Amino acid sequence: MWAALMYGAGDVRVENVPDPVLQQPTDAIVRVVRTCICGSDLHPYHSMPAAGHGTAMGHEFIGAVEQLGSQVPGFKRGDLVVASFAYQDNTCEFCREGLQTSCPSGGFFSEAQAEAVRVPQAAGTLVKLPAGEDSALLPSLLTLADVYGTGYHAAKRANVNPRTTVTVIGDGAVGLLAVLSARQLGAEQIILMGRHNARTDLGRGFGATDVVAERASEGIERVRELTGGNGTHAVLEAVGYKNAYQTALGVVRPGGVISRVGVPQYGEAPIGFDSLFGPNLTLTGGPAPVRAYIDELLPGVLDGTVQPGKVFDRTIRLEETPDGYRAMDSREALKVLIQP
Ligand SMILES: [Zn+2]
Known about the structure:
With about 350 residues, this protein is α/β, with parallel strands linked by helices. The protein folds into two domains: about 1-145 and about 290-340, Medium-chain alcohol dehydrogenases, catalytic domain (Quinone Oxidoreductase, Chain A, domain 1, Alpha-Beta Complex), CATH 3.90.180; about 150-285, 3-Layer(aba) Sandwich (Rossmann fold). The protein has twelve helices and 18 strands. The protein has helices spanning about 40-45, 95, 120-125, 140, 145-155, 175-185, 195-205, 215-225, 240-250, 275, 290-300, 320-330; strands spanning about 1-10, 10-15, 30-35, 55, 60-70, 80-85, 85, 105-110, 115-120, 125-130, 165-170, 190-195, 210, 230-235, 250-260, 280-285, 315, 335-340. β17, α12 (about 320-330) and β18 form a beta-alpha-beta unit. α5 crosses α6 (about 175-185) and α8 packs parallel to α9. The radius of gyration is 20 Å and the shape is globular. The termini are close together.
């Protein structure tokens, strides 16, 4: 089959690789119908040391079940399914507590930009979709694999509710879907910090009440002006760089929550009296257990209440994946959908 492989920073190639095969009775093989490139794929695209071999990429996909191990009840060949970007048994104590990304039997996909994927723990990972392979809903359904569930996780971890004011840092797909999620959870003031007009316009469509294009101290000042000087109860940080964390500290209200879902590209940051401790702040977030949210978010996608698939602004074939990376890296494209 064909698959995208990364050979080092800026070097993605589409090559022929062996077809995936069942390795465990709990596995399934899924033929990929739609996959995509994630903002987090851009981190290795910037930093991966050049190697003589390629590394498989991609963790978001919708597909059709091709083969099932003997211990995958509830599915049949041909079912259209979405997988969470982390696989899990969905039965252990962490899974039952809604923290599937800490499942001891779990792990993360990294081979979805391909024609087929081996799905470990398939019964706990795949969710059947009541839609056909030609459904116009496929882009929105694909966001359940990661970006929509991740934005939702940011909002849930920050306890967003109708009495919460919210700042979202970052106008990538996760930030925009954090806006949508905060709106769904009832927040009435949602300030989106981002400076790409096409993206922040989409953010307004998803429910942002204010857009702040300024960054750093000017951006902080602007958010404070919009909130009577106090900052917001919740800050959803969907970037991952240290300056975004610094901005979060600047715009959060005393007693508030900073919820991070951008993968941190730093290991040290202020947590002392002048940052987290003095104002009684809570710092939370992490890899989103999106499997915990798929059942809750699916009905709104199916009935068209929400259209998270609007984050996709370019569709390419699998062989064009290297161009897709370039387009996302240069910010020509917000999020690239791949149709193998
Ligand atoms: Zn588990």
